[in-house]
Specification:
The structure holds 2 protein chains of 2 kinds. Chain A is an alpha/beta fold. In chain A, α3 crosses α4. The longest helix of chain A has 21 residues. The relative contact order of chain A is 0.17. By secondary structure, chain B is an alpha/beta fold. In chain B, the strands form 3 sheets. Chain B has a 5-stranded mixed beta sheet with strand order 7-6-8-5-9. In chain B, α18 crosses α19. Classes of the chains: A alpha/beta, B alpha/beta. Chains A and B meet through α2 and α3 of A and α18, α19 and α22 of B. The complex binds adenosine-5'-triphosphate (ATP) and magnesium ion.
């Protein structure tokens, strides 16, 4: 479905991504995880053609991603960026329907689709006519997700979709999202830096460090069959934090 | 499509102000020149030609307009022609002057009679007491306080060479505004000054003009300068102009200047009365009511502001977008727009004459006013468009691209609406500045509120100045209010919420 072959990207002296091979399994959820600045967002941007690789090639459904076909390809991908990226001058429903309207899809069809998606992501109907400034953080993320799903893309790229939310809302939204991914049977690539969230969503976890992939596998693989000390350290860092807290309270 | 229609409209607005009158008379914007221009205007009407009269803020503009064919005639002084207009040709005799003018297709009439030279004067009583008759006599009184107009202090043919020529020993020499010199003489804070021979104020103050015994000052005989082709196009008019040769005496000119400057009688009326008396030529002086005048100024003013602003918006928006897209283009565009802003209006108007002529437009009147206002309006709009687009957060640009919007659709649907408030603020700034700047239309015959303002300054007539200044201020406020209303419909509600919340 989605594949990187020998793809690398640098910004001046900074190497954002070293030459990397990565195949994303169709219909499954792949989670990219790793410390801040390790190149997670860079991989998503390369996949959707927002930036061009310095070396290597991105393949989508077997086709090479080029500057020429990027616009077409993007309409087959849904993308939710860190912080949501809703347009402040448009209402929720206008945000969601912006692209369909631009492509002159029939009005009724667009409206039906919005209602269907609002139900799917459990967004209250009365928030559809509000502007982003009038929404809660969780509602904004739901609207972003609706916008990404609007054209019924084959692939969803989610860059820390829950990053900006407080833990309670985040847990609730995690519960809501997982069945959505399962029922839609979409190929999902999600970025997070929370190992628990990764384990919750992922069929495959891709652990990265300083622009390269350290290990790919299930959470179980990473815990029991880590290929490097870094993998264990990374997982333990979050786990020991929780254990330490539990220890002190218990 | 709409943009094309608008662009065509702007072009037609420019083209629409091509010359309509048979004869076009120019003046320099000071009382005497305007009165002479009005005399010429009445003569042309009397000879059956349609005529217009345009005042210029300086010799250079009037001369350029004359040789470009934008005007047909204006009054000037032989000294000015030799010392200023054609200074580089180093002319001496009348024959040389005539030949040099002919090379430009210009003819010069014989002197009209009076001279408007610089002269040196002092109060009659003091001069009598000290026994001063000539400039040379000043040498015997080195303690006298001298005060000269700033222009005279600076001119190449002003104070410095005068002092050398007469070897004047005076130490106490100050520069001051010409308008203040007479009062300074009266209060004895200065005792000797420069003056024009035909200054109206000479009537009010008892002044003695000192004889230029070493013949330092060149002749400043008043003459008509007119285009050669006028003789075939309007022969009766040229004949009428020539009939005034030797007819206007120094005392008559002083009296006419005084009627305008001191009694506040309009130049056109003074000119008409002179012709009635001197040549038995009866001319019609159109008397407009205050409301009619202000309405006419308003139409002209709104025309200038409206079209120049519209053209500036059409050009600045794409330039601002380009500047935001490419930082190297941005530097060049913002740099040029910034430099244009610093060009003084008069310089810009002088520079515009010949390119406008090349393009087939008039170099005076409405076209240069429109172009100058257009140029001055560019910077605020370009700058705000650039800033507004640069302010759109990178996350939003990325989201818009990721949706699959083309760069053009992204600009139209996302970036421009988000930048709308800033862009509109730029347009508002341009519009308000434009209302003020459009008064320069009064400089070059484009009409508008500048017309009474400059006439009022010339005649020291405050009520006339207010006729332009008050409506101009009112229009500026109206523009401001209109834009606040427009803002409500143009700036998306979602953005206004954010600003309030
Ligand atoms: N436009 C850019 N210009 C310069 N450097 C960049 C740019 N975008 C990313 N980088 C650098 O590339 C590296 C990888 O960035 P990337 O955004 O992929 O990190 P990330 O893994 O998503 O981090 P985070 O978890 O903080 O979002 C970082 O060192 C970053 O500073
Ligand atoms: Mg990131």
């Amino acid at each position: 479905m989605l594949e990187l072959k020998g793809v690398s990207k640098s910004y001046g002296q900074t190497v954002a991504l070293r030459a990397t091979d990565l195949a994303i399994e169709p219909g499954k959820t792949t989670v990219l995880i790793g410390p801040s600045g390790c190149g997670k967002s860079t991989i998503l941007r390369l996949m959707i053609g927002l930036i061009r690789p310095d070396t290597g090639t991105v393949y989508i459904g077997g086709d090479e991603l080029t500057a020429e076909n990027a616009l077409q390809v993007r309409r087959r991908l849904g993308y939710v960026i860190q912080e949501g990226g809703l347009f402040p001058h448009l209402t929720s429903s206008a945000n969601v329907s912006l692209m369909s309207t631009h492509l002159r899809r029939p009005k009724q069809q667009v409206e039906d689709r919005i209602r269907e998606l609002a139900e799917l992501v459990q967004l209250p109907m009365d928030t559809l006519d509000r502007y982003p400034a009038q929404l809660s953080g969780g509602q904004r993320q739901r609207v972003s997700l609706m916008r990404a799903l609007m054209l019924d893309p084959d692939v969803l790229l989610l860059d820390e979709p829950l990053g900006a939310l407080d833990p309670m809302i985040r847990a609730g939204l995690q519960e809501d999202l997982k069945p959505i991914f399962q029922t839609l049977k979409k190929t999902v690539v999600m970025v997070t830096h929370d190992i628990g969230e990764a384990g919750f969503f992922a069929d495959t976890i891709v652990l990265m460090r300083e622009g390269r992939i350290v290990q790919c596998g299930t959470l179980d693989d990473l815990v029991k069959r880590s290929v490097e000390q870094f993998v264990t350290d990374f997982i333990n860092a979050q786990r020991t934090l929780i254990q330490a807290l539990e220890g002190s309270s218990g | 499509m709409r943009v094309l229609a608008l662009a065509a409209g702007v072009f037609l607005a420019l083209a629409g102000c091509s010359r309509q009158a048979d004869v076009s008379v120019g003046s320099k914007a000071f009382t005497e020149s305007v009165i002479l221009g009005e005399i010429a205007t009445h003569l042309a009407e009397d000879a059956g030609y349609s005529v217009e009269h345009i005042n210029f803020p300086g010799t250079r503009l009037a001369w350029n307009a004359l040789i470009a064919g934008d005007i047909d005639v204006y009054p000037d002084y032989t000294g000015t022609i030799i010392q200023e207009t054609l200074f580089s040709e180093n002319l001496k005799t009348d024959a040389e002057v005539n030949a040099a003018l002919a090379a430009h297709g210009i003819r010069m009439s014989r002197p009209l009679g009076f001279e408007n030279a610089y002269a040196i004067g002092m109060r009659e009583k003091l001069a009598e007491q000290l026994g001063i008759r000539t400039i040379s006599d000043l040498k015997r009184h080195p303690g006298l306080r001298l005060g000269f107009s700033s222009a005279f202090m600076e001119r190449d043919d002003g104070w410095k060479p005068l002092r050398e020529r007469y070897a004047l020993p005076h130490q106490d020499v100050t520069g001051l505004e010409h308008a203040l010199a007479y009062q300074a003489l009266d209060s004895d804070s200065i005792q000797v000054t420069d003056l024009y021979l035909t200054d109206a104020e000479r009537m009010l103050y008892d002044l003695r003009v000192l004889e230029d015994d070493l013949r330092y000052f060149p002749n400043y005989d008043a003459v008509w300068l007119y285009r050669e082709d006028l003789e075939t196009r309007a022969p009766e008019f040229v004949a009428a102009l020539k009939s005034l040769e030797g007819k206007i005496s120094e005392s008559e000119m002083i009296a006419m200047n005084a009627r305008t400057q001191i009694d506040k009688v309009a130049e056109t009326k003074v000119a008409a009365d002179f012709l009635a008396e001197e040549l038995r030529v009866e001319s019609e002086v159109i008397e407009e009511t205050l409301a009619q005048r202000v309405w006419r100024y308003t139409l002209d003013h709104v025309f200038l502001v409206g079209w120049s602003l519209l053209a500036a918006i059409l050009v600045s928006l794409p330039l601002g977008v380009l500047a935001a897209r490419s930082s190297s283009a941005g530097q060049v565009i913002l740099g040029i727009a910034g430099v244009i802003q610093t060009i003084p209006a008069i310089a810009l108007l002088v520079v515009l004459i010949s390119p406008l002529n090349e393009l087939g437009f008039r170099g005076i009147g409405t076209p240069p006013a429109l172009v100058a206002l257009f140029l001055y309006s560019l910077l605020p709009i370009v700058r705000n468009t650039h800033a507004g687009l640069k302010d759109v957060s990178p996350q939003l640009v990325e989201s818009a691209s990721a949706l699959g919007l083309s760069p053009w659709a992204r600009l139209r649907l996302v970036e421009l609406p988000i930048a709308a408030r800033t862009i509109l603020a730029g347009i508002k700034t341009a519009a308000v500045i434009n209302v003020g700047f459009a008064t320069l239309g009064g400089f070059i015959g484009a009409g508008g509120y500048g017309e009474p303002i400059f006439a009022g300054i010339r005649r020291a007539d405050y009520s006339l100045i207010l006729e332009g200044a008050i409506p101009a201020a009112a229009l500026a406020i109206l523009v401001q209010l209109t834009f606040e209303l427009v803002e409500r419909s143009v700036v998306p509600k979602g953005l206004r919420l954010k600003a309030e919340g």
